[in-house]
């Protein structure tokens, strides 16, 4: 049986809930397709998230990595195409606000996802789950984690499926945010399981 490292994030900004945290905790230890899931929840902290991810990665030594984050206001499940070498934006959970900082000094400007993003979108849509490729993961923690993961794989010459997927908000969040597009947690979870089944 192969191993999949599946990560989510704790709640952040003014959201009291993060669906990626619940999904990762629920799927941890389960088997889907060819993979046993090793679920890890990462902090929304520029100084800790990437380091914790890379530590877990080396400890678990997975055959594939899917990192997840919530993108409030998105209406589809969106595999990210590219991560860029920039940290910028809103405060993290420690109050840190980076401005135009590189994720990695002297790192490549960008790395492309190593997940089968087109196939993932096709499989999700065949199941009736709205999905599309996204061409920007932003400059906040999700991009930071995606870039750091792909940089580490590049530095160590690893060619496993690996990348980042943003998911929409869930009902738990929309309860207090009337304008927020949101999905049931169970559908988001079905989407993640479908995605894992696309991996060989
Ligand atoms: N989404 C944020 C960080 C944590 C999360 O779930 C992002 O898109 O950067």
Structure description:
The protein is α/β, with parallel strands linked by helices. It has one domain (2-198): Aminopeptidase (3-Layer(aba) Sandwich). It has helices at 19-27, 49-60, 117-126, 141-155, 171-174, 185-197, and strands at residues 2-9, 31-32, 35-42, 64-70, 78-79, 82-84, 110-112, 162-167, 169-170, 182-183. The strands form 3 sheets. The chain has a 6-stranded mixed β-sheet with strand order 2-3-1-4-8-5, sandwiched between helices. Strands 6-7 form a two-stranded antiparallel ribbon. Strand 9 (169-170), helix 5 (171-174) and strand 10 form a beta-alpha-beta unit. The longest helix has 15 residues, at 141-155. The protein is globular, with a radius of gyration of 16 Å. Bound molecules: pyroglutamic acid. The site of pyroglutamic acid has 12 residues, from strand 4 and helix 4.
Beta-strand percent range: 15-25%
Here the CATH topology equals Aminopeptidase
Q: How is the main sheet built?
A: 6 strands, mixed
What is the CATH architecture assignment?
3-Layer(aba) Sandwich
The end-to-end span amounts to 11 Å
Protein name: Pyrrolidone-carboxylate peptidase
Active site: 80, 142, 166
Organism: Halobacillus halophilus (strain ATCC 35676 / DSM 2266 / JCM 20832 / KCTC 3685 / LMG 17431 / NBRC 102448 / NCIMB 2269) (Sporosarcina halophila)
Catalytic activity: Release of an N-terminal pyroglutamyl group from a polypeptide, the second amino acid generally not being Pro
């Amino acid at each position: 049986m192969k191993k999949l490292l599946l990560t989510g994030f704790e709640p952040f900004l003014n959201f009291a809930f993060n669906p990626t945290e619940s999904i990762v905790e629920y799927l941890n230890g389960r088997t889907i397709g060819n993979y046993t899931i090793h679920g890890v929840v990462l902090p929304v902290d520029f100084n800790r998230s990437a380091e914790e991810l890379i530590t877990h990665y080396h400890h678990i030594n997975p055959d594939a990595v899917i990192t997840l984050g919530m993108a409030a206001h998105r209406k589809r499940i969106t595999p990210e195409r590219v991560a860029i070498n920039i940290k910028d934006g809103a405060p993290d959970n420690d109050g840190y606000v980076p401005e135009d900082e590189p994720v990695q000094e002297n790192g490549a400007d960008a790395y492309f996802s190593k997940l089968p993003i087109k196939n993932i979108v096709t499989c999700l849509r065949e199941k009736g789950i709205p999905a599309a490729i996204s061409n920007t993961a932003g400059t906040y923690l999700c991009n930071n984690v995606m870039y750091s993961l792909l940089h580490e794989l590049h530095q160590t010459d690893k060619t496993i499926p690996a990348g980042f997927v943003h998911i929409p908000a869930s009902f738990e969040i929309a309860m207090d945010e009337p304008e927020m597009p949101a999905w049931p947690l169970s559908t988001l979870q079905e989407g993640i399981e479908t995605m894992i089944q696309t991996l060989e």
